[in-house]
Amino acid sequence: MNLDLKDFGAYIKKLRVLSGFKSQRQLALEAGVSPATLSRVEAGVQHINPITLKKMSRHLKNVTYQELMTAAGYIEYDTPGPIALKVKENQESIYSGEYQFITEQEMALLTEFKKYPAFYRDIKINPKVNIRRLSKIWEAFKNST
Q1: Quick one: CA torsion of 70, 75, 79, 80, rounded to 10 degrees?
Q2: InterPro entries this protein is in (predicted)?
Q3: Are 119 and 103 spatial neighbours (Cβ–Cβ below 8 Å)?
Q4: What whole-number distance in Å separates Cα of residue 110 and Cα of residue 11?
Q5: What structural domains does the chain harbor?
Q6: Which of 61, 84, 94, 129 could disulfide-pair with 80, CB 3.0 to 4.6 Å?
């Protein structure tokens, strides 16, 4: 269960903040990694290497090095075990705060669209606008059948 670069960056950012680091620089200096590297990882433009991940894992709370390696795609599981399931749970919680402004109907629609990764990936780019746009498309589709 590995995350794409953007999702992994958001995951690392969330872990950093939850671990009490207000800035990328704070975590980078504490972990002994380049602040620029951490910035690029969180921005989703650079893949993190296992050595940097190991250094950072010592300072991130509630996550193990193995979980980070799984999220980064270095460890694969054929069947989801507890680590893969925790990574999935964390992945889903990355965006949970962004969806607080949508209605129950829109959340049901979003849940349905999660079954179609291409739609869901587009939704995450700009949730507020894209969920409403897809909701209108869905209503038009339902009314035409």
Answers
A1: -10
A2: Cro/C1-type_HTH, Lambda_DNA-bd_dom_sf
A3: no
A4: 20
A5: 5-94 (1.10.260.40), 97-144 (no CATH)
A6: 84
